[in-house]
Amino acid sequence: MSIVIRDVREHELDAILALNNNAGSAILPMDAGRLRYFYDHAEYFRVAERDGALAGFLIGFGSASAHDSSNFAWFAERYRRFCYIDRIVVASRRRGGGVGRALYADMQSYAELRYPHIACEVFLDHGADAALLFHGSFGFREVGQNTMRNVDVRASMMLKDLCSYPWVRDTYGDHLPDAAWIIKPRTPIAPAKAGN
């Protein structure tokens, strides 16, 4: 009954789309084109497996990305460097079993070597107490609120400071050692330039 966190595979995108769109009102639905954008451009896109079955996923973007989310833009206006969690989804039958914590721990292991903060939002208009408690117990704090354009959803904008980052930055800069345990960043497809 162990949880395995690994990089997403392209052939899993249909299953991930179904998982996302069955998650309920706490997650915005998406279409195949949006998921493809995430697959092509996200810096962090990993899945959780439990007993060999897809149990959840987490998608993240570094602050230097050209991500088009209004919540990402809210953080970018206020913070120079951060890793943004665009979405995390856990299959309903796996909720409460540690899958979300495993995904967040894996994301933190990735981010703390590269960014001083992890940023995310929690929708406030859909019974958010469990999500707020989860994030608070994981070290996040609210740094503001944002009403998302085009969907009229109010979100608590949450930030977690990563205490390891200053030491890693001062010791290694942008040249992390080549160690097997260090999660390698995905190589997002560069956005097309105008005129090409």
Polypeptide structure, described:
The protein has 196 residues and is an alpha+beta fold. The protein has helices at residues 13-21, 32-41, 70-76, 99-111, 129-137, 165-172; strands at 3-7, 44-50, 53-62, 83-90, 117-123, 141-148, 153-161. It has a 7-stranded mixed sheet, with helices on both faces. This is Acetyltransferase. One of its GO terms (molecular function) is acyltransferase activity, transferring groups other than amino-acyl groups. Residues 3-163 form the N-acetyltransferase domain. Keywords: Transferase.
List the helices and strands and how they pair.
Layout: E1 3-7, H1 13-21, H2 32-41, E2 44-50, E3 53-62, H3 70-76, E4 83-90, H4 99-111, E5 117-123, H5 129-137, E6 141-148, E7 153-161, H6 165-172
Parallel strand pairs: 4-5
Antiparallel strand pairs: 1-2, 2-3, 3-4, 5-7, 6-7
Query: In whole angstroms, how far apart are the ends?
Result: 49 Å
Determine Rg (CA atoms, Å).
Answer: 16 Å
What general form does the structure show? Answer: globular
Strand order within the widest beta sheet: 1-2-3-4-5-7-6
The CATH architecture comes to 3-Layer(aba) Sandwich
Give the number of DSSP strands. 7
Low-confidence stretches: none
The third-level CATH topology is: Aminopeptidase
Quaternary status of these chains?
A: single chain
